[in-house]
Every structure is written in structure tokens, then in C-alpha cells.
Design brief:
Layout: H1 3-18, H2 21-48, E1 52-55, E2 61-65, E3 68-72, H3 75-84
Helix pairs in contact: 1-2, 2-3
Length: about 90
């Protein structure tokens, strides 16, 4: 049995044991992983444009370049801003 199959079997067993609660937790972790991956990709894209991207504690992001910073509310807005300043990468 491969490792992913074992993990899937454990997840199914956990769902049965806890009446569906484990499914909600698993989905939460999956979305957290996806958000972290998207943030890492956007930081790399910003670096290709000569910018730095920082996560703010209260949510949102800070995009900096040449001593100037702009507060941006979400990753979608970061992508749009990078396209406007010439970051046509990806």
C-alpha cells in the first residue's frame, strides 16, 4: 500500500470515528497549504520584478520596490499591481 493510500485510509477512519469533524479539519489544512503555496509563488513573482512582498499581521500584503511601499489587500490585487508595473512573468 502506497503512502497516499495509507493517509487516505486514515482520513476515512478518522471521519468515521469523529462523525465528519476530521473532514472539516482536513479541508482547512488543505486550504492553508494552498494559500501558503500561492503566497510563496507570488513572492517569487515579485522578486522577478525587483520587488519584495511581505505579509502583514492584520492581513493583506506590503509590496515594496525602490524604497516605496504599497499596502495591498489580497494576492489577486498583488498580481494585478505586478502586471501594471511590468511584471508579466507567469
Amino acid at each position: 500500500m502506497s503512502s497516499p493510500a495509507k493517509n487516505e485510509g486514515l482520513t476515512v477512519a478518522a471521519v468515521q470515528a469523529f462523525g465528519g469533524q476530521a473532514t472539516e479539519n482536513t479541508q482547512e489544512f488543505a486550504s492553508t497549504d494552498a494559500l501558503e503555496e500561492a503566497t510563496a509563488r507570488m513572492k517569487a513573482r515579485a522578486a522577478q520584478c525587483g520587488c519584495s512582498l511581505h505579509e502583514m499581521a492584520g492581513g493583506g500584503f506590503l509590496l515594496c520596490r525602490w524604497g516605496h511601499c504599497k499596502e495591498v489587500p489580497c494576492l489577486r490585487a498583488v498580481g494585478a499591481l505586478l502586471r501594471r508595473i511590468g511584471g508579466q512573468h507567469g
